[in-house]
Amino acid sequence: MHCQLYWNNYKYLPYEKELALKEVEALLNPLEIYSENNVLHIILEDEDSVKEKLDKLTYFACIETENETIVPKQVKLEQVEGNPVNNRQATRYSAHGIHEYKGKFNPQVVKSILNLFNIDENSNVIDPFSGSGTTILECSLQNIHAVGLDINPLAIFIANAKQVAISTPAEEIALIGNNIVEAFYQKIANFEIPPELTEREEYLLKWFPKDFFCEIEALREIISNIAGPLKNIFYVLLSNHIREYSLQEPADLRIRRRKSPFPEEALINVFNASINKFVRNMKSSQEIIGLNVARNRAINCDSRSLNLQEGILDFNYFDAGITSPPYATALPYIDTQRLSLVWLGLIPPGEIMTLEGRLIGSREFKNAIKKEWQEKIVTNTSQIPTPLHEYCLELQNSLSETDGFRRQAVPLLLYRYLADMQSMFRNLLPYFKSNAPYALIVGHNHTTLGGKRFDIDTPRFLVEIAIHVGWIHEDSMELQTYQRYGINHKNAVKNETLIILRKP
């Protein structure tokens, strides 16, 4: 059978075409493959499952066979957003766009990796740094069972709200959304701030003008009262906007007082528009996928200590892992998201920085913890590979008095990060089946200490650590990233690497 595979009109990053070719080889095992006039030609053996396999491809606009033209399901999903495919992929199809989340990776990459690994509906997948649930949602859309783990309760909240949304008829979400918006106007007219404030309310009033505080609290009560089992969908949709109406500078990852003007559009109008857009996405997606999908889940737990999570995971259970872990001195996820965390009641205000300090890759160090890791780095208490320990010591010895307190902490932070990732690799290994693959997408980093630039090759370091605790390194592939803009663009990761490991 001769098939012609046509590329989309958008501009591809080099790795996307490379992944596309790897997918074709993994899924279809072609007898011949060649490119002509920017069209990929493949020769296949005739078999009953060819059409089904062609429909699973991620990066092609259409496929012409000798008998028909196939538009892959992925293309139909990407057009759900109502935007024509122009110069960039649509990544917010289905429930993927319900809430912004820093560090989120493209769902197309997840789907492509699932294809590379030949993961099917009988497989089980794990994402030990699941964030807002990109991997487990993409698995759901392929009807693959998956579980996500994350230490951030907001990430878990968002990920599980997505799972509720994909298995709920869009018309039902629309009806409840309309009821919420209608109830708001009556509720806000009589809403008053309680005379005695809780710790949560006191904190929020420090970060929201009173009128906006009243609006988000009124909506929170309405959602709680009328949204029933769908309430978390609407909490998440509103959470996605509350920072824009706060006294926190919206464009800054850190908590800093606002200098930019407030939005001119009323919050209720923005919220209503986001509900309507989400409903359109879900309706179109459900017309393509249906409601018969795997209902996956995200669990609030630490991938460094899975042995403490009795009854959650089984040994020799997972057929594959796909994740995008943090890197050393990573984004301040908790600090950035503290308003949503407190507003949703997921964490008391006083525990924000404690949780931030517990994250793998965190920049936060309390004095007692810092002293503990100063002792560990000297003797390599965590027993990371010797070359990596020596590199951390080199960073430590390069410090000068001109380095500020954040740079002074970099060697210890890197050592702690490598030790934490080693714990993760070691703890996960028993839960994978023999020969099961584990894909990680991680960014590179750099720092300047004592006036000298040091490139922190996190992907290479992680490969060394994984091998050190028993994984096999199968492949590493560079992934280019889009140009980042905004207040933090100088700190954005410029390139990433896809690491593929395998359990022996």
UniProtKB/TrEMBL annotation:
Residues 69-156 form the DNA methylase N-4/N-6 domain. Pfam families: N6_N4_Mtase. Keywords: Methyltransferase, Restriction system, Transferase. One of its GO terms (molecular function) is N-methyltransferase activity. GO terms for biological process: DNA restriction-modification system; methylation. InterPro entries: DNA_methylase_N4/N6, SAM-dependent_MTases_sf. The keyword Iron does not apply. This is M2.BmrI. The gene is bmrIM2.
